[in-house]
C-alpha cells in the first residue's frame, strides 16, 4: 500500500505546531475578524452556531441539522486561522486513515472538529486539485442512489445485514483474491474480509467471525450468488434461527447501499495502492475511513451509531493537539452506561428520521 508520505507528513503536522501559535494566529488573523466580533458580543450567530473563547482559544459550538433536540449533540470546533488550514485539509483528505474521499465526505469529516469561514469552498478546491484523486479517476459504474420506494427503517444495529462478494481481484501475497463484504442495514457499518475462495465454507467461516463480534442478526440479505444459495449456507443460517432473504435479480437496488460501498472501496484501492499484491494489507485503513465518515443520508458516521461517540481518528487527534481540551468528563460506570444508552438512542432516532427524509427526497 502506497502512503506517498501522507501519514508521515500528517504526523509532523500535529507534532510540530504549538498551541500557542494557534491561539496567537486566532487573535490576529483578518479572516477571523467576524468570528472574534461574534464571540465578543455574546457568540450567537444563529440558532445552530455560536462563537466563544475557552482557555485562550477561539471556539465554535455548532448544532448539526439532524439534531432535533438542540444541544444534546453539539459539536465543539476549533476555529482555524488561514496559516494552518492547508494542514487540516491534508489530514482530513490525504492521510492513510482519511481515504482520499470526495468533497462532501471530506467536508463533513472536517466539520466535526474544525471550522473556518469558507471551509466548504476550500475543501472543494483541495479535493479537485488532489493529484492522486485525479489519477484514480471516478468509477464508471453508476449505482442507483436509492430505491424508488422507502426501505423499512431498521430499529436495531445488526438486526439485518447485507452480504455480497467482490472479485476476482489481483491475487495478494497472502493468496487473497476476493472480498466478502458485510453491511449493517441500519447504521451502514461496513466490514470487508479478504478471502482466497468464494466457496460456501470460507464465506461461512468469515461470517461466523463477524457474528462473534456483533451478534446474530435476525435477517441476512444476499444476492443470488451460488455460495449464498448453497445447501450448507442455508442450513447454517437455519440452525442459527436467521432468516435468509434473497434479492431479486430484477431489483438490485435493494443491495444499493452495499454496492455504493463497493464503488467507494474500489476508488480508494485505485487511489492508494500501487502494489496490487498488497491491497489486503491496506484494507483496514480504508475501512476505518469509511466507518469514521458521516453518511449524508443518516447524519452520523457508522461508527457513531455503533459506539455512541466520535472515534479518535487523525482529525480528532489534531484537534486535541492544537486546541483547548475542555474539562475531563469522569463518571462512574452506572452514569456512563446510562448516558451511553441515552446518547445512542437519540443518535439512532435522529438517523432514522434523516434516512426517511432522504428516501422521500428520492421518490
UniProtKB/TrEMBL annotation:
One of its GO terms (biological process) is DNA integration. GO terms for molecular function: nucleic acid binding. Pfam families: Integrase_H2C2, rve. InterPro entries: Integrase_cat-core (IPR001584), Integrase_H2C2 (IPR041588), Retrovirus_Pol_polyprotein (IPR050951), RNaseH-like_sf (IPR012337), RNaseH_sf (IPR036397). Residues 153-310 form the Integrase catalytic domain. This is Gypsy retrotransposon integrase-like protein 1. It comes from Denticeps clupeoides (denticle herring).
Amino acid at each position: 500500500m502506497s502512503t506517498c508520505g501522507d501519514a508521515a507528513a500528517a504526523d509532523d503536522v500535529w507534532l510540530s505546531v504549538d498551541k500557542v501559535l494557534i491561539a496567537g494566529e486566532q487573535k490576529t488573523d483578518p479572516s477571523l475578524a467576524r468570528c472574534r466580533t461574534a464571540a465578543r458580543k455574546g457568540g450567537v450567530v444563529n440558532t445552530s452556531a455560536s462563537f466563544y473563547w475557552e482557555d485562550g482559544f477561539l471556539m465554535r459550538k455548532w448544532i448539526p441539522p439532524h439534531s432535533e433536540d438542540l444541544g444534546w449533540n453539539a459539536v465543539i470546533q476549533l476555529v482555524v486561522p488561514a496559516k494552518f488550514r492547508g494542514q487540516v485539509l491534508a489530514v482530513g483528505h490525504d492521510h492513510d486513515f482519511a481515504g482520499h474521499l470526495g468533497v462532501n465526505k471530506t467536508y463533513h469529516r472536517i466539520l466535526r472538529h474544525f471550522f473556518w469561514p469558507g471551509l466548504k469552498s476550500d475543501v472543494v478546491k483541495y479535493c479537485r486539485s488532489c493529484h492522486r484523486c485525479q489519477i484514480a479517476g471516478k468509477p464508471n459504474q453508476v449505482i442507483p442512489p436509492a430505491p424508488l420506494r422507502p426501505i423499512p427503517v431498521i430499529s436495531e444495529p445488526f438486526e439485518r445485514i447485507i452480504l455480497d462478494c467482490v472479485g476476482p481481484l489481483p491475487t495478494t501475497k497472502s493468496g487473497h483474491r476476493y472480498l466478502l463484504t458485510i453491511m449493517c442495514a441500519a447504521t451502514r457499518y461496513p466490514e470487508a474480509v479478504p478471502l482466497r475462495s468464494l466457496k460456501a465454507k470460507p464465506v461461512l467461516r468469515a461470517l461466523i467471525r463477524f457474528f462473534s463480534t456483533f451478534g446474530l442478526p435476525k435477517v441476512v440479505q444476499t444476492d443470488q450468488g451460488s455460495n449464498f444459495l448453497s445447501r450448507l449456507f442455508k442450513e447454517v443460517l437455519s440452525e442459527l434461527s436467521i432468516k435468509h432473504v434473497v434479492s431479486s435479480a430484477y431489483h438490485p437496488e435493494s443491495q444499493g447501499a452495499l454496492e455504493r460501498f463497493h464503488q467507494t472501496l474500489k476508488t480508494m484501492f485505485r487511489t492508494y495502492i500501487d502494489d496490487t499484491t498488497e491491497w489486503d494489507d491496506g484494507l483496514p485503513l480504508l475501512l476505518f475511513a469509511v466507518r469514521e465518515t458521516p453518511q449524508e443520508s443518516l447524519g452520523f458516521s457508522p461508527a457513531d451509531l455503533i459506539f455512541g461517540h466520535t472515534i479518535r481518528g487523525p482529525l480528532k487527534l489534531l484537534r486535541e493537539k492544537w486546541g483547548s481540551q475542555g474539562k475531563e468528563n469522569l463518571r462512574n460506570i452506572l452514569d456512563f452506561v446510562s448516558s451511553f444508552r441515552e446518547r445512542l438512542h437519540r443518535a439512532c432516532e435522529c438517523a432514522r428520521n434523516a434516512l426517511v427524509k432522504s428516501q422521500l427526497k428520492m421518490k
